[in-house]
Amino acid sequence: MKSALLLSGGMDSACIAYWKRPDLAINVDYGQKPAEAERQAAQAVAATLGIPLELVSVDCSSLGSGDLAGASPGVYAPSSEWWPFRNQLIITLAVMAAVKHGIRELMIGTLKSDGIHADGRPDFVMAMSRVCQLQEGNIHLSAPAIQFTAVELVRHSGIPMDLLAWAHSCHTGNLACGQCRGCNKQANTYDELSDLAC
Fold first, then answer.
1. Which processes are annotated in GO (biological process) (predicted)?
2. What is the per-residue pLDDT for 89?
3. Measuring CA to CA, which of 4, 54, 163, 179 is 20 to 30 A from 45?
4. Phi-psi region for residue 78, left (φ > 0), alpha (ψ -120 to 50) or beta?
5. Virtual CA dihedral for 68, 19, 116, 27, nearest 10 degrees?
6. Please, what sign has the CA dihedral across residues 13, 15, 19, 25?
7. Helix locations, 52-165, DSSP H
8. CATH code at 24?
């Protein structure tokens, strides 16, 4: 069964790319502020692993909110980076690209900690998978790391640190701000990995 990975260029999807070695990686620029850096990170990871990369670009920035859009968080925002229906949007764009390649499984980089968002929970993944399977192409959606924390995923995947160093996790732009939830998560992950290595 041919598989694809939604490769954002962040730590989590980079780890899954190394661990699962999909047949195809898909990077989506939906108008988010860090799109260029995410794309460059995804290109570096895919090239290193020899995985073909499909680039998708659709500007939905006018629909965004929060850090990823460079705007104030929306009224329902559970955190500063919340973008309404973001995962539903990028999954839909990714399966649109995947279906022409005969892909039957699309993997996403959702982790245990992503449950703060409704679209980061197991019931959402199952519901979106059902929607994708109901349509032509019968693509199954999976979140292979949904039971892991970021540190657990890094360790389980076995990704080399020099490959993980390509990851771009900042929510606010193409240069790491060092203050957003994405930057803090990346720094905390490295700190915890360093502590475990001692």
1. tRNA queuosine(34) biosynthetic process
2. 98
3. 179
4. alpha
5. 30
6. positive
7. 86-98, 122-134, 150-157, 161-164
8. 3.40.50.620
Number of neighbouring beta carbons within 10 Å of residue 62:
7
% of the chain exceeding 70 in pLDDT: 99
Q: Which domain holds residue 43?
A: 3-196
CA distance 87 to 79: 15
- Report, as an integer, the average pLDDT of 119-133: 97
Query: What one-letter code names the amino acid at 51?
Result: I
What is the H or E stretch that residue 36 is in? helix 35-49
Q: How confident is the model at residue 69 (pLDDT cuts 50, 70, 90)?
A: very high
Residue 36 tokens, joined: 């260029």
Q: Do 170 and 34 touch, CB atoms closer than 8 A?
A: yes
pTM over 0.90: yes
Query: How many structural domains are present in the chain?
Result: 1
CA dihedral of residues 52, 45, 122, 72 (deg, nearest 10): -110
